[in-house]
Structures
1.
Amino acid sequence: MRHLIDIRDLAQGEIVSLLDLADGIFAHPEDYREACRYKKLATLFFEPSTRTRLSFEAAMMELGGKVLGFSEAASSSASKGESVSDTVRVVGCYADVIAMRHPKEGAPLAASLRSTVPIINAGDGGHNHPTQTLTDLMTIRREKGSLDNFTIGLCGDLKFGRTVHSLIAALTRCEGVRFVCISPEELRLPGYVRQDVLAKSGAQFAEVRDLAEVMPELDVLYMTRVQRERFFNEEDYLRLKDSYILTPAKLESAKRSLAILHPLPRVNEIDTAIDDDPRACYFRQALYGKFVRMALILKLLEEAGK
Amino acid sequence: MNIDSIKNGLVIDHIRAGGAMDLYRLLHLGDMDCTVAIIKNAPSAKLGRKDIIKIDSPKDIDLGVIGFVDPDATVNVIRDGKLADKRKLDLPERIVNVLKCRNPRCITTVEPGLDQVFFLSDKATHTYRCLYCEARAELNKNK
């Protein structure tokens, strides 16, 4: 059974094929309106989400399929103590594919070990978020024309920012991507990303504290939110939450061709005055997320049917 | 100091000094009812100081655990009081149900019946990571 737990589960060629398919759906959505007729997607969200859950549901609906599931652990049997493994075995009796978000890291992998239907990791704690990465890659490719030869600044919470971890893993497989990691000391990349992914790949990377000093070098700026829900200590969150706020003044030294991405939701790390700047891509990025999830659902269902 | 020779069992030799107690714990040697001898800080021409464990039992033990704790250790198999075999150790690709993941955010902390699996992520630095959350294995904190 094929699952998507980590972006590294997909070969680079498969990622490119998925992005091509997503572009095709974007251009001609009417061709795919019956593609998943009689199929069901279960969205098992043990943690709140707006974009990811709704984009999965919209994706399945636009493919002609149906959706069932829950949007918080309290409304599932998890609140009675049911294990993740049992939950997916039961849901596999009712649905053809499962998208799962869980606050515990590795929960979708644990689920995939027992599941009879494909599992898609829709975010596991501060660990991975591969479908956001597919969204990010589609956005970069559409906005910059290529996934190769550019400098990306990753800014904010790089420690618990699961979207950042997955994106780095994916971009290290592209040609000539240079990484500039911008964070406070306490929110630096975890060792398994810095050493096992970045350093091992041989990619050029730097870790800095100041966004302004590197702004002129960047082709892509990936902003992230400092996530209150990842902190055990409220004081640490309050101290770090406003570390980086992107304002029009700070963008003055940026390239005119810069692409600003954000996985959303945003709190205050991007001034709303930037939203109308053509360099702001984050709402288009949210739109692309639906199309890339349509492509992924199609691929996994097709492989499961073989 | 005189330690009797063993008849049928294992001698784990050339353990880096201080490593014997980690092995004693991870191999659950305290649960065995045979003679187990631990020699700490023995003089060694190669290592300066080394630890040795002698287990007077033919029962199989997990060589992967020994490789994880100290891949430079040597394992001698003793049968009828004589050296019957020397086992070569290497860093195992996976270690299962030996260590517990210490990351409080890891699914292994709450999911019942899930094997605790660590995989070798970097041979050069002897780094193992949790299969589920990728947190680094921490040997000394698993006491």
2.
Amino acid sequence: MEGSPTKEGPTSVASAKSSVPSSSLSFRNMHRVFTASRTALKSFSSYADLIRSSPPPSSSFYAMTSSLLHPPAHLPPTVALQLSQQAPILLQSTPSSISPYSLSSLWSAAESPELWMTYENLMLSCLRTGDEESAHLCLERLTARFGAENERLMALRGLFQEAISDDDAALKQVLEEYEAILKKDSSNIPVTKRRIALLKSLKKTPEAITALNQFLDSSPTDAEAWAELADLYASQGMYQQSIFGLEEVLLITPYAWNIHARLGEILYMAAISGEAGAEKYLAESLRRFCRSIELCDDYLRGYYGLKLTTGRLLTGVPQASRQAKSDSVLAAPDSKTVERLNETATAKLTEIVRLSTRGDAAWGGYDKAELIAAKALLDTDTVKTTR
Amino acid sequence: MAQVPVQTIHRDPQLFYWILIPITLVMILTGVLRHYATVLMASAPKKFDLPTIREQRSLMRGINLRANANAVSPSSFQVRKDYLVNAFENGAFLKEPDKKGQGAPNPMTDPAAMEGMMGMMKGNMAMIVPQTLIMGWINAFFSGFVIIKLPFPLTIKFKSMLQAGVATRDMDPQWMSSISWYVLCIFGLQSVFNYLLGSDNAASQMAQQMGSMGPGAGAQMFGPGVDPDKQFQGEAENISVLAHHYTLEGVENRLLESVRV
């Protein structure tokens, strides 16, 4: 897959923080917490995105059985591969068709939502690993049960077609199909989202932004869509708009610590991009990271951002200009507090990196890339102080 | 005190085979049938068109803002407040902006509302019709039979419950008539249906009665007969009087106090 430099934004944070997730990743983390929006989230990560942005393989953190009931987007590739290798066996062992009216349902086990969730997730895993036959079988069984006119299935079928098309021309055809469906029924939300995801993977970012804005006008309580929009704006360097979008997400899910941290990151990027009011952005960014740590103990990204922002506040900006605060915005905390925060963040980061690289059982679950980035940050810090 | 002699009634054992078992069987089968009839008759969940979705979700957005306003900075909150209050008051999100201020439509003339009522009717019919038929059937064939004796003593108060259709004054309340067995079946077969059809079956009346008593909150919020304009006006007022406390105020000190390295 091609690298996606546009995704991270043109600033140096992106390069410094190699672990800054692409939008869909942070999205997925949120997803892990708020499973309620399960259906929605999946619809945005296109096939290409799945492969491009999937996190590196981690330990056997995910148990085999439970992973089929999780949305597959955040499964590490090894687990996805494992799952799809089991697909033929699994497909054989489950009955090929279940009708809600058949007499046999009186004595056989009742169909459960888990079964259909398994099919859907299995299909996505199979598509990731290129097992198109099994994926097609899953799709067919879902269609046999829910009918081809089911909105979610229309989107799934579109996803399947996106996955098997080899070039942009085929993808464009899928896009046209989406548009035909939407012309008939403009309230088909899953297909609307797929269309936006496809626009994004075709690198038509302005169109995707327009479509998202249109979608959000009619459905402003969709946290996923707001986060996606914020991400697209950030990729275009439009930080103001991106911040607005993430604030909307927070208004829907106020305790999503990863969104707090993400907003902190965007604020930091806005601050160092030299926009007007860098002061204000930096102070808010610092507080966002504080809040994310407050909501989630030992949150690596939170501490990383905290260290970064406090470091910048301590070195970069002269004290005098900080006094010029506007009335409605909180000023940055005094330098003593900032220093203490910086020390805390450094100590915590060191602890997390030390314990989890040692393989402590209780400290697993951290993303490897994030750990490496944290380590790199700590190393540059020590180099500076020894000089 | 002399012992009250135990009443003995000689029953034909055939009563057991030809009344007790048929009634039970028929009750179970009706329950199963009703479940499938309800599944087949259920109308698909209503699909809303885009303007309706927009109207409902915009209102939800206002409610979200009110509930979670503390997560965003005062200036961000002010911007959103000004925008939403203005839009709510002008009816910018209404499904039919030109009908603003005309009050709620009459639910009886609104076809969408009628549809919802039809769904409710169907559910009730599926319960009432078989109930009536079977009651009539039992009355016609089995009324006046005493079919079993309960293995435990009961007080006289139970007579009217257990011996419906048998007008014998002196009979011990332990004896049970066929109609009472039917009534007992109606209420007692719940667990059998749970076993046969799964826990969310439509065969049990209990669930249906509960459902008709307390309709979901969503139905009340956007149900027929509610004027969306009134809701928007109310929400605009709620938002405009909201006091805003920024969560991030002093978060750094809270954090320093709580985190021990």
